[in-house]
Amino acid sequence: MIKVLGVSKLTRGQIGRLNATSNYRKYDPIFLRTTNLITGESPDGTIRNFYAERVVNCRRPLLGGALFKTGLASIVF
Predict the structure, then answer these.
(1) Cα separation of 74 and 2, whole Å?
(2) Is 70 exceeded by the pLDDT of residue 65?
(3) Domain residues for 44?
(4) Rounded to an integer, what is the distance from CA 67 to the centroid of its chain?
(5) Cα separation, 21 vs 49, whole angstroms
(6) How far is the C-alpha of 5 from the C-alpha of 40, rounded, in Å?
(7) Is 74 helix (H, G, I), strand (E, B) or coil?
(8) Sheet holding 36-41, edge to edge
(9) Helix, strand, coil percent content, the chain, rounded in steps of 5
(10) CA distance 51 to 32
(11) How many domains does the chain have?
(12) pLDDT for 16-41, tens place per residue?
């Protein structure tokens, strides 16, 4: 299971630059970059980026994210 660390929104300009400069799946006519990019950590600790439409079985920690957003994490941890 992938643990979600963050979500980024790409603009069409950023996607255009990635398409122009990246060799990743350059000649794959089916591959399409989307605006939703997820940064996730796999169970072995590897951190990777995924396009949201290609991600299966990932989750954001239930309470961990809420604690850090509200500032309670500094009190609890």
Answers:
(1) 25
(2) no
(3) 2-76
(4) 20
(5) 17
(6) 5
(7) helix
(8) 47-51, 36-41, 2-9, 58-59
(9) 30, 25, 40
(10) 9
(11) 1
(12) 998 899 898 888 888 888 888 888 88
